[in-house]
Specification:
This protein is α/β, with parallel strands linked by helices and 144 residues long. It has one domain (2-142): 3-Layer(aba) Sandwich (Rossmann fold), CATH 3.40.50. Helices cover 37% and strands 18% of the residues. Helix 4 (82-91) links the parallel strand 3 (69-73) and strand 4 (95-99). Pfam families: DHquinase_II (PF01220).
Amino acid sequence: MNLLVINGPNLNLLGIREPNIYGDQSFAALERFIQAAAQESGASVELFQSNHEGAIVDKIQSAYGRMHGIVINPAAYTHTSVAILDALKAVALPAVEVHLSDVNSREPFRQISYAGMACEESFIGLGFEGYRRAIQYLCQKYGH
């Protein structure tokens, strides 16, 4: 199974950015974790991170016909981007939303997820483990 894993803005600063919320592990550590989780599930992953909304939209569109599913942590764009929502709906691939922190217990604006409206499952507040669960979910439900 081929999966696209998308990480949005500021996730490249993991370990530096608000470690009391996001932990002290680096983005490189997250990428290694995701690769290992994919291998455990027998999936291959393409990793992508961008701080730019349009680049994320372009990457989602590029998954059409190439990928079997998408794992996405849109980060701040979760709460603002109809464009990412529309791209996920347009490609119509199974998608799972991930958030490192428990966005539902944070500021009220973080409790709105546009991207989540196009995702069939969400793993929120589990740290890195949310990515493993998202990959496992897609592999178990749609495994190729």
